[in-house]
Amino acid sequence: MTDRLVVVGASHAGCRLAFAAREFGFAGEIVLIGAEPTPPYQRPPLSKSYLKGATPLAAILLKSESAFHEAGIALRLGTPVTTIDRAARTVALASGETITWSRLALTTGARVRRLDVPGADLAGVFHMRDLADANALGAALPAATRAVVVGGGFIGLEAAAVLRGLGLAVTVLEAADRLAARAFPPFLSAWLKTLHESRGVDVRLGTQLREIVGRDGRVAAVALSGGGEIACDLVVVGIGVVPADDLARDAGVAVD
User: Fold this and answer.
1) In this structure, which CATH number among 3.40.50.11540, 3.40.50.2300, 3.50.50.60, 3.30.559.70 belongs to the domain 114-239?
2) Domains 4-110+242-251 and 114-239 in one fold
């Protein structure tokens, strides 16, 4: 069998692992497989400088295509892995291709936690995780004037800052009693709230969404669990992520 390292997940971790394998002397074939059509890129700018148009795509790519070529790393992009056969040592791709491996690494990361309320599938509701999400939200901004951001963590607050900076009226809904409670101590949460409010963001703590109200298939308002509605053109959801461990589980890999 050909000595081949297959890395499933063209994430930051997957990209770094592939290049590290070369740097540490792995001489076999390396194949990096990604579900997205774009080469590996940095995700943090998506909800900040990339979203507001200040940073082009080329600036957030982790490596140039020539760097992959020079390192002998083959890219399979835009075609996710559907199954892993550990006994046969193969991965099956959505494209129909099957690739054998002698070594396999899973760097599938996480996927966005979806909002589970009535109206979550309306046009004008955006989650923020990948390049396609950022592009879709960016395309909707010129026609929008009022936004509701669901979630007062990093992604939600970054998106809120960008949208407010672009002139939209922005309301942040956070179910907890303070912002970014999982990441920051209370005094920093309070500072963040004051900062965003000083820039015109309406921050509502202890507030949950009951429903997204639509009109003609598009977002028109959000209804709050405690009563009342907030009119808006778009809703940005930033309520965390869940592990993308389906492939590993289906392949019988122990997952905590």
Assistant:
1) 3.50.50.60
2) yes
Is there a contact between 180 and 188 (Cβ–Cβ < 8 Å)? yes
Domain 4-110+242-251 part of CATH 3.40.720.10: no
The token pair that represents 103 in the structure block: 């070594």
Contact call for residues 4 and 104 (beta carbons, < 8 A): no
Q: Are 247 and 109 in contact (CB under 8 A)?
A: no
The pLDDT tens digits for 179-220 are 999 999 999 999 999 999 999 999 999 999 999 999 999 999
Q: Domain map of the chain by residue range? A: 4-110+242-251, 114-239
Q: Give residue-wise pLDDT tens across range 117-144.
A: 999 999 999 999 999 999 999 999 999 9
Entry pTM: 0.92
